[in-house]
Amino acid sequence: xxxxxxxxxxxxxxxxxITSAQDVNLFEKKELIVSEDTLRYRILYPENFDxxxxxxxxxxxxxxxxxxxxxxxxxxxxxxxxxxxxNRTKYPAIVIMPQCAIDDYWAQVEVxxxxxxxxxxxxxxxxxxxxxxxVLRLLDDFQKEKFVNKNQIYAMGLSxxxxxTYELLARNPDRFAAAIAICGAGDPKYVANYAKKIPVWAFxxxxxxxxxxxxxxxMVTALLNMEAFPRLTLYDFANHNSWDxxxxxxxxxxxxxxxxxxxx
Length: 264
Hints:
This protein is α/β, with parallel strands linked by helices. It has eight helices and ten strands.
């Protein structure tokens, strides 16, 4: 009987693993090639996708650990949120998850890892990195598609992707309807570009020893000083991985998709 019990658990784990792999494959592999540069990305279309209809678009930027060129690692965190059947049913949307090259970064920033928390010197004025430039080009291409709802384009990201999210808002303040930045950081000087235009929800772990939680608080404070009304969720129990808790927030997607540009 005991052996049968373990066999059942083993088969259950195998089945769940196979199912998860099949679900991840719903994110189609794509590439954007501009001159000699390539941006690899995965895209999830809504169920029963119809080019004659319009859908919200969510851009999700991964963290530094998922950089590479396999066009797979960027699905490690966040893909399950959008593959969840309830979420797919309630919030039919196009989800794009690009992958940053191993030697690049979403945000224009010098990173010093000699001490922890990591130190960041943001250099927005230098212009976008190659990876960010390709993401902006990809967004330009999708914004031309008739099936994309131009009033419901959203940015999300974690860690390095949270930094990229803040930079996206500063560089494209008229494009996004709302944004979520998890354990990120940014240059507060540039929040004026989007403070009054884009609702922001920031998440961070109070015990984060990689990206100092004060970095998120700095961005939120800058937004408040611009008379914006950001959301901030600080988890007292979390270290750098505050994304699992953020993804589990029942109001996360309802809040995100409730925002739209030019909404009365």
